[in-house]
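Reopening this ticket.

The earlier resolution said the output was attached, but the attachment link was broken on my side. Pasting everything inline this time so it's all in one place.
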Amino acid sequence: MSGHKGARYGEGILKGLTVAGWIVVAIMMVWGTTDVILQAFYSHLPGTVPWTEIFNVIALALPLGYVTSKKAHITAELFTLRGRTKRAVDIMSMFLVLLFMGLLTWQLCLQAWQSLRGWEFDQAEIKIYWFPAKIALAFGYGSAFILVISQLIELLRRKPKT
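Inline output:
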């Protein structure tokens, strides 16, 4: 029973992160539109380009876990495989994705921690802090990494089709 509740809470968190990513996209759109309108009146919002970069990173990273949970990846099959061969290729592919996501998450966590410790920022016309984007990136890839682990375990538990 608690496993089912845990899965439901986990899915709720992933959906929340996806909504947060959508909100960041909306903020980025409002920011960019406002800057364009202000430029018509020979003014502008300070730091639009760096903030847009930060918003892009956050908006793309937060929904990664949800996309992974829905197995909504873009795939292309070069060969049509069946049975044990398909299962073996799926397991090997999932392991490679797991390895990649794990290494990427590890490095992103290290960079996010360093950025947070130093309150990393750029000085354009205003201070622009980079650590929120780095934390979101690490969190997004970390959630996708955890979901890849569960998908790999599920794949290994399934009996092979003959």
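Reporter confirms the inline version is readable. The mean pLDDT is 77. The chain is about 75% helix and 5% strand.
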